[in-house]
Structures are given as structure tokens and as C-alpha cells.
Amino acid sequence: MRRELLFVLFIGLLVAPLAGGWASSGDEDLRAMVQQLLREVQELKKENAQLKSEIEKLKSQRPPAPAEALVTAPSSKKHSFFSKGGYGARPSGIDFYGFLKADVVWQDANAVGDEYVLWVLPEHNTKGGHKFGSDSTFTINFRHSRFGFDLWKDYKDWKLFGKFEMDFYTQSHGEDTLPWNPNHSPLRARRVFVGVRKGTWQLLAGLDWMTISQLYPHLSNFPSGTFMGNIAYRMPQVRLSKWFKVGEGTLKFEGALEKPYGFPRMEGIIWDEDPSNRAGYPGFEGRISYTTKIWGQPALVALWGHYSEEEYDTVDGVEDADSYSLGLEAKFPLPLPFARKAFLLGELWSGRNLDGYYTGGVNQGTRFRLDNGRYVTDLRSKYTDGGHILDVDEIDAVGGYVELEVFWSPKLVTHFGWGIDNPDDSDLEGVRGARLQQQMYYANFLYRFTKEFAVGGEYMYIDCDYRKSDGDDGELNRFMGSFYYFF
């Protein structure tokens, strides 16, 4: 069409000078026709310019990567990479993260652990053929290093997410007889779960932090206050969460069905056959929290608790043991004039039968009375001496911790804290080598030379009380230096 118009205009311009003999009315018609053609030509030039501009824009745009083009909905942020999509799935966004950490550790007494400490052994005591005394240890290790993958998939009005996180804190086969070999470092599944989120509802299933006691002290010693005042760990669970906007903050309700671990280690069975499994139903965890901001900094208060059950075979049949807890945790900013920002945080708790992965009672949850007259909290043969269970009694405990966190600058942060785990002494009556109480005192720092590279240092003093008839109390001074590469 455009070519025809241009051709007519060209012929009209050629014929116009030869048309002098036409009538005056013919001149007027020809003039009108030429003007119309000129207007159309201008419009065509304008359209051509617009088309050229659109073509240049399209040429400058990078075509999407094949995986990115298949994502259901775009994300608001960039991700490390996209999965290929297996088992009939379409690609998902993946974020790769973690840190490398090397620790140099020296401590001046014997403890359960030297790369990390669970409790201190008594001094100058003979128990079960083993002599404990004050003895220093030194180690260099990398086991605190970890890496993980966050996965996501956005749909129209809901989101699918997951996590796969690993570290090196696993045990070798035959741990009681073979040491963990750092040159043959096996991996451990740390957190593995899948979740869905829609609006203010969330469902999560898999291995994750317990629903209870989600506030942890900042310790370089890996267990983060385990058996020293901070309870809770990680457990397989199915957790449902719902939150509401209340004032300037968020009120959150969480409930979970859990697979607990008590394992007083009944001789001759594998660890998966835990006494908690034999109860025939899952444990339950619940938490109510409120998060907000005070002076522009985050603040938190939460109330939580759990209930589960264990089952043991006794001489007279079967006996159950209850496990429960009730706790309060909080974190508040402090207006310290000499610091960039600071927080006071901690928790208080009370409960029963909190050994194993509940990490309370200094790992003493149940007392077993045996038919050979002995009382024990561990069912391995070297403690039972061939005896069989007559009665099972739960051990009560209370504890908590408090910590001061100070950010001196964007690069330097320090932590100062104290914690205590205090089982009921009367519930441990008759148990040889019973741990009556354990406390921790600590101070540490982390300095980031860059956002990726940091060094840290930590001092811990740990005191574990024993009955005088079982020997002296256990005391330990622990010094630790760490090197980090965050990614």
C-alpha cells in the first residue's frame, strides 16, 4: 500500500506541469490530491521511525536463559542458579550459601568432647574402670564448616520452598571404638525440609530447628549451650504456622508434630529404634511469639512448650516415661551510648525427661532402678552390669541463659553470657557419677575484615558439679580461635 501511494505521488508531480490546459476546476482537484498524498507520506515516515525504534529495543534485550524462561513466575531477587528439573518437574531457583570455618582449640581438663564440649568430667575419680583427671587437650578441626541450598518456586498465589543443609558433625561407624577421622570426613544432614506458604499460613515438613526454644546463644563452641542452659536442637517434624499483624509487630502461632530422640541407648538395638518411637505417637511442640521493633531494632518475646513420651520394657511389663517442657525466651535492644547497637537476650525453662536432643538435664532424663540394686541413667551394658529394669522415673530440671550482644562497629561484635542446667538432685539419688548441675561463662568476639573473611576468639569456663562421693567437680577453661570464609 505504501509503495502504491508513493508511485501515485510521483506520477502526479510529473504530470502537474503539463496540465496547463486543464480547466481551473481540474487544477483545484489536482492540488487537493497532491496535498492529501503529502500528508499520508508524512504519516508513513512517522510510523517507520516508530517501528525502527521498537526493533532496536528488541535487539538490545538479552533473551532469557532456557531454565529461567521456564520458571512459573519471576522472583524479586537474583538467585545463584536454576535446577535442571527432574522427575517431570520444571526448574526451580536455588541459592547456594554457607561458610568455611577452621578452629584451633585448647582446653585444660577432660570433657565429653574436645572439638566441642557437652559436659566436663570429674577430677580424680575412678568410674567403671576409667580414671578421669585434669588433662589438657589441643585440636585443629574444620567440622563446623557447612553449606546449603535454599530452593524456591513461586506460583500464582502461593510459594513452594525447601532447604538442604550439610555439615561435618557426624560420627564414624563404631564410634565407641574407632575415632572420627578428619581425613575421611563424612557429611551429616543438618536441615532438610520442604514447605509451602500462602498468605499468612505456612506448612513445613522435614528436619529443622525445633519449634520450641528458637533463640540461641551466640557461641563458637558448636553445641551452643547444650546441657549448659540452652535446650532444643533439631528434629524431624511437621509444623504449621500462622501469623497476624498486631500493632507494629507480628504475632505468630506455631504447632508441630515431632519425632523426638531420647536414646538412653538400649544395648543391642540400632539408634533408629529409639524408646520415643515405641510410644506409638509423635511428640507435640507449640510456640507463641511476638516480634516487633524498639528504637528501630528487632525485639522478641515467646512462650513455648512440648510433650512427648517414651516406652521401656521392664521385668513386670511396659512402663512409660513422660517428657515435657515450658519455656520463655526474649530479646530486647539496649540503648548503649558507646555501641552501634546492643541486645540483651536469653531464656528460662523448666521440664522433665529432657535428655537426648532436648539437650537438658545435663543429658540425664530418666533414672532406671535395676534388679541388681543399681540406679543408672544410661542402659549400655557397662553401666547396667547385666541388670534388668524394675522401675523408670523421670528426672526434672530447670535452667536458662542470658547474653549481652554488642555491635561496636559494622565489623566487630562481642558476646558475654552465662547459662545453667540444673537437674533435680533427689531424682538422681543413687546414680553413681550423677551430674548435679553444669554452668557456663563465656566471652567471644567476631571481627570481619571483609564481609566474607572474619576471625573470632572465644573463652569459656565450664563448671560441672558431682556428688563428693563420686569425686571432685569438673572445671574447664577453654580457648578457641576461628577463621571464617562466608559465602
From TrEMBL:
Keywords: Coiled coil. InterPro entries: Porin_dom_sf. SUPFAM superfamilies: Porins. Residues 27-61 form a coiled coil. This is Porin. It comes from the Bacteria.
